[in-house]
Design goal:
alpha/beta, binds zinc ion, 18% strand, 8 strands, two-stranded antiparallel sheet
């Protein structure tokens, strides 16, 4: 079946268009990476948006908004986790040893029903499986349907839009990695963290594919 699908809809590289895979080895060399930023505001310990949100990474993530292909998620999460394990092995080990649970930023159910899936959940599942971390999408509930943050230009308006959008599902774990596909201003992740802070969250990391 997969062979027939490959023949009908061949995978083409998001960088150069070559047939075979979504991220060809040559274009993978041009992916740019951020390093972790540590935080001095506990419980937040740091954040990492590994990929720069541009070029083939941007095209791949945006393509998932219009066509769902689990192969894109699989290829991209492999590049993401291999780079993370190779460059920051101590950070990954720290998360594993301290039982950090990876939880995705949820979509409001209106939006999820309309799109049919939440790519942060699918990426989050794949990333946590590859990093040997526990995954749970039963920690943060989206209680408010917000407008797309990317479409709001004013910083103040973005904060108002996302304010109190999340409600935790109790009890929450001690150590948490809040995961999203793309973060530019981090206001969504900050709002999710704020909803959890008062319930005894001990340590928190923000992890996003791109930023
Ligand atoms: Zn290529």
């Amino acid at each position: 079946m997969s062979l027939i699908i490959d023949l009908l809809f061949p995978k083409t590289c998001f960088g150069c268009g070559q047939v075979g895979q979504y991220f060809c080895p040559k274009c993978q060399q041009f992916i740019k990476y951020h390093s972790p930023k540590f935080s001095s505001h506990p419980p937040k310990e740091g954040r990492l948006s590994l990929f720069y949100f541009h070029g083939l990474i941007r095209r791949a993530i945006q393509s998932l908004k219009y066509e769902f292909t689990s192969d894109i998620i699989e290829e991209m999460s492999t590049i993401f986790t291999q780079k993370l394990q190779k460059t920051y092995p101590h950070l990954v080990k720290y998360w594993q040893q301290n039982n950090f649970i990876l939880t995705p930023i949820p979509l409001h159910f209106y939006r999820q029903n309309w799109r049919g899936f939440n790519q942060s959940v699918l990426f989050g599942q794949s990333v946590s499986r590859k990093l040997n971390l526990t995954f749970s999408d039963q920690i943060i509930f989206r209680s408010k349907d917000t407008h797309s943050q990317a479409k709001i230009k004013s910083h103040q308006k973005r904060l108002e839009n996302i304010h109190q959008a999340f409600t935790p599902i109790l009890p929450i774990p001690q150590n948490l990695i809040i995961f999203d596909d793309v973060a530019t201003s981090f206001s969504t992740l900050n709002s999710a963290l704020n909803s959890l802070k008062v319930y005894g969250l001990n340590r928190c990391w923000y992890l996003t594919l791109a930023g």
